[in-house]
User: Which sequence fits this backbone?
C-alpha cells in the first residue's frame, strides 16, 4: 500500500507586505519541497495577495490556493482565476481534512 502524502492547511489573514504573509509563503514553499500537499486560504487583508507572484509560482508546483470571496467583495477586488474564491466552509474542510493547520495573522 502506498502511503498518502501529508497535508498542510495554511490560513493567512495578514497583508501581503507583512512578515507573517512572507513567513506563510516560505513555509508553504518548504513544505512543497518536502512533498507535502499544501492548501492555502487567503482571508481578510491577505486576499489582496492571492495573485502575488510567489503564490502563483507555488501554485504551479502544486499549491492549492483559495481566497475568501466575501473578503474580495468587501475590498472591491475583481475575482480572477489565480485562486479559487470560496467561503468559510472551505476553511472548515481544510481544518478537518489536513494533518496540520496553521494560521498567520
Assistant:
Amino acid at each position: 500500500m502506498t502511503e498518502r502524502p501529508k497535508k498542510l492547511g495554511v490560513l493567512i489573514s495578514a497583508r501581503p507586505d507583512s512578515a507573517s504573509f512572507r513567513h506563510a509563503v516560505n513555509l508553504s514553499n518548504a513544505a512543497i519541497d518536502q512533498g507535502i500537499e499544501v492548501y492555502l486560504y487567503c482571508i481578510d487583508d491577505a486576499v489582496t495577495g492571492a495573485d502575488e507572484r510567489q503564490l502563483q509560482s507555488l501554485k504551479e508546483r502544486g499549491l492549492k490556493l483559495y481566497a475568501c470571496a466575501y473578503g474580495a467583495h468587501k475590498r472591491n477586488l475583481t475575482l480572477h482565476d489565480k485562486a479559487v474564491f470560496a467561503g468559510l466552509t472551505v476553511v472548515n474542510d481544510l481544518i478537518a481534512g489536513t494533518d496540520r493547520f496553521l494560521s498567520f495573522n
